[in-house]
Here is the input.
Amino acid sequence: MQNTDILDFGKAVRNAQKRTYIRQADIARELGVRPQTVARWVKAKDIKLSVAIRIASVFGERISDFLAKYSNQGWDYRE
Here is the structure.
């Protein structure tokens, strides 16, 4: 049985990249990490909250707004 309440953060990042044309190399440069690290994050279904917050900031978003906009889950994470 699958838990449909689990958010695929990597998929949200991929959606954000498609809509904003921000590449993994751009994210890596902004965060001061290697592109391979970003590639691993984008493939992951879940990551540390601190990393998710940093990635959202690259897109100019708070984490709640980033998830509401790009998660494709139809959830509203904003308070």
About this structure: The two ends are 30 Å apart (CA to CA). The mean pLDDT is 87. The longest helix spans residues 9-20.
